[in-house]
Amino acid sequence: MSSHPTLSPLDLTSALDGLHPDLRILGPEALIGRHPGEDPANLDAGVMVQPASTEAVAALVSWCRANRVAIVPQGGVSGLVGGSVSHAGEIILSSARLNRVLAIHPDEETVEVEAGVTLEALQAALEPHGLTTGIDLGSRGSATIGGMAATNAGGILAFRNGVMRHQILGLEAVLPSGEIFSDLTRVVKVSAGPDLKQLLIGSEGAFGFVTRLVLKVEPIRPHRAVALLGVPDASRGLRVAARLRRHGALQLEAAEMMWPRYVRDHAALKRFDLSWLENDAPVLLLEVSGETAEAATTLLEAELAEIWEEAELQGGIVAQSSDQARRFWDMREDSGFYFAAFPNAPSFDVSMPPSALDDYVAGLTDRLNAIGDGLEAYVYGHIADGNLHIAIAAAGPLPFDRKTAVEAAVYDGIRTSGGSFSAEHGVGLEKHAAYLTHVDPVKQALARQIKAMLDPDTLFNPGKVPF
Amino acid sequence: MSSHPTLSPLDLTSALDGLHPDLRILGPEALIGRHPGEDPANLDAGVMVQPASTEAVAALVSWCRANRVAIVPQGGVSGLVGGSVSHAGEIILSSARLNRVLAIHPDEETVEVEAGVTLEALQAALEPHGLTTGIDLGSRGSATIGGMAATNAGGILAFRNGVMRHQILGLEAVLPSGEIFSDLTRVVKVSAGPDLKQLLIGSEGAFGFVTRLVLKVEPIRPHRAVALLGVPDASRGLRVAARLRRHGALQLEAAEMMWPRYVRDHAALKRFDLSWLENDAPVLLLEVSGETAEAATTLLEAELAEIWEEAELQGGIVAQSSDQARRFWDMREDSGFYFAAFPNAPSFDVSMPPSALDDYVAGLTDRLNAIGDGLEAYVYGHIADGNLHIAIAAAGPLPFDRKTAVEAAVYDGIRTSGGSFSAEHGVGLEKHAAYLTHVDPVKQALARQIKAMLDPDTLFNPGKVPF
To answer: Which keywords label this protein (chains A, B) (predicted)?
Structure first.
């Protein structure tokens, strides 16, 4: 990170006045009272610019480059690793007014959007066409398509549809040079030289600002059935999920697993009925779709009955109404419940190859226990793609030594097993140590070279991913 | 492209002797009589090195870098754009001995392979586990996984599974620096900084040599039904395909369309029965899977009957045996039949957004006609993803002016419509003009910068993609 000459938020606000007709400038006054999103420091820059066109973004970036002013891109500010935190002297570049759904192509199942459209707004725009996004996540109301591209977001459907990178057919961005990079293909098959839009996906705003995207979408499969099952372990849970994935008349829509402490404490807090659950087992939430809701329910019940003995299921319950299905989902999606008891609980988001999950969770339990003080974790996540969310049952921030020990316990063995220390949240400010420790040094060096080439003055989201 | 000091094939053969125990060196003598693959010039270098380990690749690359000798990577040499052509003074780096399937994880539906494994060998290794690759293409017997990564191959299943880029979870490569880039994640969800393995996918060996990959695979769906339909146009064909994609108990496995001249000439040559086809209509080949072959056939017939009027189908026939299904497929997969009548017929491989296909094909017909001499094209391809293969019914190579006019006719409007001048074959030697004309100049400049950064001496596959 190089240092930049610092202009005050008020200086910046006046300097930008009149730069481009499609730029709205919000100074310190205008930002008062605005919700900062997931991180209280997101608005610390005190200046936010909201462009309404790609050309306006390019004008702003060129100005920032000429004046060596750093840019912090912001979408829905729902990120959990500090990737949108800003400081005085920087400019927040917000996608809030780049919020148009530009074209829906129902026959092709594609859509073209500006980067600031929220996932929920896009789903609402698609719904009349019988379509929906191929990616879904809990923060759908605030997360933007551009922010999801910048962090290569994953969510609930990744096991079947892949992650954001797999949804993106075309992309336009403004590079740190101020040039507009335009690769708005609307087709899945392209082999026409290096696919450099991939650099803009998952690089957390460090290589450019995404302005426009073309995405694959998919038909809504509205006829659903939802079940909660007690499973002895992830391995047996995966076996149930694999069976449903191979079913000719059912589609698996979600396989979300919650380990016992998460289940117990959440149920106690929210009075979820667990009378059906045996032996304090982990709980697997399954959702399937079929030709009708009744068919889905009947077939799901039949499949579960057939695999019951083999998978050693520890009780189960199939939702008999959409209300009940919603309550099952609350148990999984309202996952922040533990922050009430443990404010700022250290939280992690890792991927492990699914067949390694049981060993990983057992090892994690032992490693946390070895740290002392009866340290435990809430563990839950997307079992079919191996993405675990982990929150330590302790108020944060932890003292430095404890923090380091906990991180070592969480990340132990992940790289050698083929997993990732960050599955869908990114690196941001929070995961620097993990990035420096667990990413292949050759890959780190290459990332630094590309950063230096694209953004020699380190003006794009400085200090986030450690280049 | 910089120039390199030229060593003769024999000099190179002796110089490499003993460099690393895992390197097999084949000199000019050893290459005599070897089939060059799709391009007669593939073996012109006269020296082929076959490493059996990543370390041996790294040793070779370091030696080449020190001695400024260029490297031409080769997999199955089934490419159609000259991407593997070599010259005296260069070394062919073959993946032939990197041919191990390293690990199959049936519960996770992932596999780890060396780059030289052929698609067919991988399919055979997966079959006992009830699994197969999520990508399939006609040249499966020779195409290697590494070559398919380097060209971001597509094939028959891209409309549902995406292309090679979407199958790859992890990748190891040797960079032009001689360093080993290792990102062998085995998970779909990774948001841990820029995903630089994407640079190695689809860059045709210009940025490094892929040695090892982790891929997603998927369950075999063995119970199939196949039909041939007459359709008035692509739009109606897409409607039929879309209906089948939304069917709860059927999965669409292929939707391949052949336009009339292709159908007519191929049927005349191979005596395909077209008595069921009305009005010289384009033909759509559909394949679906279901719970049993009988169920798939019955449901497919019922769906076609229901949409018959609306889609204005022009006759149709559902295969009553696997033999008959195979004959239907021969009509599509044995597509090189026209080379007998038109040797070296100029051929193209474009993507268009599926809803723009009819306008494109009509425009193409007019534009070719305007060139004169009754110029016509064979058109066929993967309708659901918009990938058309086009061969001009004229012997090649064409005189320069005619070639330029034909290329302009084929590529007209593709970029502005959101398509691609190369869908799955790459750029290689054959598509330089198209690359320079139809790729965003900002993207071209960025590709040049990255090439210069990674391979400052232009040693990796020089002269292919024009950097």
So the answer is: FAD, Flavoprotein, Oxidoreductase
Q: Coil, helix or strand for A394? A: coil
Q: Do A419 and B153 touch (CB under 8 A)?
A: no
Chain B residues lying within 8 Å of A135, measured CB to CB: none
Q: Which residue has the tokens 């500006």?
A: A114
Write out the residue range of the structural domain in which residue A174 sits.
Answer: 101-219
Q: How far is A7 from chain B (nearest CA, A)?
A: 29
A374 within domain boundaries: yes
ipTM over the 0.90 cut-off: yes
| Phi, psi at A26, each rounded to 5° | -110, 115
Residue pair A423/A349 in contact (Cβ under 8 Å)? The answer is: yes
C-alpha torsion B175→B181→B186→B192, nearest 10: -120
Overall size of chain A counted in residues = 467
Choose the mutation target among B190, B191, B420 for the interface with A, i.e. most A CBs under 10 Å. B191
Residue B126, domain CATH: 3.30.465.10
Peptide linkage before B397 cis (omega within 30 of 0):
yes
Q: Do A446 and B202 touch (CB under 8 A)?
A: no
Q: Which residue, A460, A461, A462, is CA-closest to A177?
A: A460
Number of domains in chain B: 4
Q: How many CB atoms lie within 10 A of CB B314?
A: 19
Place of tokens 């920032």: A64
Q: Which amino acid is at A370?
A: A
Residue B192 has pLDDT above 70, yes or no: yes
Q: Which CATH number fits the domain that encloses residue A244? A: 3.30.70.2190
Last residue of a domain, one of A286, A312, A333: A333
> Using CA atoms, how far apart are residues A36 and A23, in angstroms rounded to an integer?
21
A217 φ, ψ to 5°? Answer: -130, 180
Q: pLDDT tens, B350-392? A: 999 999 999 999 999 999 999 988 999 999 999 999 999 999 9
Cross-chain Cβ contact B194/A199 below 8 Å: yes
d(CA A249, CA A295): 9
In angstroms, the CA B297 to CA B432 distance is 45
Query: Can you say how many angstroms the Cα of residue A171 is from the centroid of all Cα atoms in its chain?
Result: 19
Fill in the amino acid letter for A457.
D
Same domain, A351 and A419: yes
Cite the beta strand spans of B187-295 per DSSP E. 209-219, 224-230, 251-258, 283-289
Which whole-number Å values give the CA distances from B18 to B6, B13, B99, in the listed order?
21, 10, 22
- pLDDT (tens digit per residue) in B4-39: 558 999 999 999 999 999 999 999 999 999 999 999
The residue of chain A nearest to residue B418, with distances taken between CA atoms, is A185
Of B187, B351, B355, nearest to A385 by CB-CB distance is: B187
Q: Go through chain B and tell me how many residues it has.
A: 467
Q: What single-letter amino acid sits at B464?
A: K
B92 and B115 fall within a common domain: no
Assigned domain for A441 exists: no
